[in-house]
Amino acid sequence: MGILEVKGVGKRFGGLQALGDVNLSVQENTCHAIIGPNGAGKSTLLNCLIGKLIPDTGSVMFDGQSVLGRKPFEINQMGISRVFQTPEIFGDLSVLENMMIPIFAARDGAFELNAFSSVSSQKDVIERAEKVLEEMNMADKRHMNAASMSRGDKRRLEIGMCLSQEPRLLLLDEPTAGMARADTNNTIDLLKEIKEERDITIAIIEHDMHVVFSLADRITVLAQGTPLVEDTPEKIKGHPKVREAYLGESA
Amino acid sequence: MFGLDKKDTSLLMIVAVLTMFAPFILNPFPTDSGLAQFNAGYPDLMQRFVIFGIFAIGFNILFGLTGYLSFGHAAFLGIGSYSAVWMFKLLSMNIIPAIILSVIVSGLFAVVIGYVSLRRSGIYFSILTLAFAQMCYNMAYSVLGNPASSYNLTNGETGLQLLLDDPRVLGVSATADGSIPVTNLFGLEMRGSETIEMGAWSFSFSAGYYVSAIIMLLSFYIAIRVFRSPFGMMLRAVKCNQNRMNFTGLSTRPYTLAAFVISGMYAGLAGGLMACMDPLAGAERMQWTASGEVVLMTILGGAGTLIGPVLGAGAIKYMENIFSKINDTVLHGWFSFLPDGLEDFVVFVIHPFVGKGWHLTLGLVFMAVVIFLPGGLVEGGQRIMNLIKRRKKSDDDAAETQPAAE
Ligand SMILES: Nc1ncnc2c1ncn2[C@@H]1O[C@H](COP(=O)(O)OP(=O)(O)OP(=O)(O)O)[C@@H](O)[C@H]1O
Ligand SMILES: [Mg+2]
Questions:
Q1: What is the ipTM of this complex?
Q2: Which of A131, A214, B196, B272 maximizes the CB count within 10 A of its CB?
Q3: CB–CB of B233 and A119 under 8 A?
Q4: Which segments cross the bilayer (chain B) (predicted)?
């Protein structure tokens, strides 16, 4: 049994069957990549995992518990954090504040009425936020307004925000899109390091094959809402069906 | 100090000094001079400054931090007033129990109204709060205010007043000389005031004002703490990106509801204080225009800033009370030095902006602020400060470069 078990998940948008019959099993402490052409339903699948969408059919189990019917914040509190395809950050807040909020959420839970203690007295949270910023190579940007950063930096901030929660399952939706080459490599290194140091399972959607082959232990190829093949990176590289459907080569 | 950082402490101190010396500061013109018209240092108006300041400070916790624009906060003001007057009728004329009840009752109403209204955001939230407030207003006016029925909580059109035969179980129904007792704080009468004559000036110090001012300072202090707390940070996050909050494991609803209830309690406190200064309560206090007024105050002063709402409340109450008193006679007095025809013309031009037309002035000022200073009066102040700083700096630079040039 994997830590994440997706069984028979289908999702229809009007006349469009975005997800057909998706079965996916992600093993604990591995990195599972999901690749596929644009519109294959990759993001839709992630949306079904975090409560943003409710699938029409099928079941989604995380660590033996169903996530269906739970609110997004409850699913996050179970240990699933997600980086979005378009960065979701707190634009009007400073980078440091952005980093502190997920740490507060992980420490205090979904709601905490600490209206009378000052933020600056929360030393443990600040320290932790500073440390993650350090790891993300963003310490010098800590007082910047998050909205004023480049797309790549917003993405890195969002990755940092998710990592700061020490999730058990990290979902990454094209995490390196819009990043400079150097930042992409840094991100790969960081994710590799974290994978080795912590108990963390990663599911990553990515178009950049360099990133995929650097990180993934297993790869699922999704096309038109159904998984085509699932295998190790080596096997996927040479798979004719994949070359045809995804890499756009005729066999 | 008090758990605040240096900047906030000095802000609090400045506000404290200004409010404590307000009777002097607001009366800069000698009593007999023509400009005495512009003196605002009389108890009634000063009380209004600080009470509406409290109202706006609380409103800003909701609107300034979370961005949820309530159009029904006057309901809590009215509920606070009614609660306080009931306390004066039933328990005693001491203002403490009255204020406590105002805050509690308006807080309870805020839980219910907030719980329902916060199911929606944006314009739908505003409309829901407006609907609730109008419901309260109409209830107070009709069903709950019919003197003939046994549900007469508000006394309808007449308004809720103190009577000689009210029970006042911890006090007296009537004083020895047969009149209604007055509101007090452990014996200190709210309407009591001292007037000091200093040369051509006269300053009045009212007990009611100082009690309200101290409560305002306390409210302001609490607001600073809320702004600087993790809770305040979460409220700002709500305004920014609720999606990110939800997917970060935070439940936004309790945060917005808590902010709504806190600001409702502030409004109730303001309403209660109004009744303490003048123990009667009428439904018009809940009308939508009153709800709109606090929105104007907050935006005019600077939503989301600490001091903005207080400035906005002061500015609007000043205009309402001072500009509205300038009538044609006063204008003719001012411009009598002009030749007759011109005098009439100038008065004719200014007439629509003063007296009953003060709303026009307010509207124009409001438009100008929203268009040119989206951050309100606070932003205006900051710009002036920056300008001064820059000028100073360039002066310094000039002084520094001079020797080199020699
Ligand atoms: N909320 C929605 N309503 C209607 N259609 C949707 C919605 N979300 C996604 N779709 C459609 O479902 C299909 C799959 O979309 P999805 O975003 O999952 O693709 P993807 O694999 O993530 O593609 P990309 O690589 O471009 O991000 C697309 O055709 C898309 O237009
Ligand atoms: Mg996608």
A1: 0.93
A2: B272
A3: yes
A4: 12-29, 49-71, 91-116, 123-144, 207-227, 254-274, 294-319, 331-354, 360-381
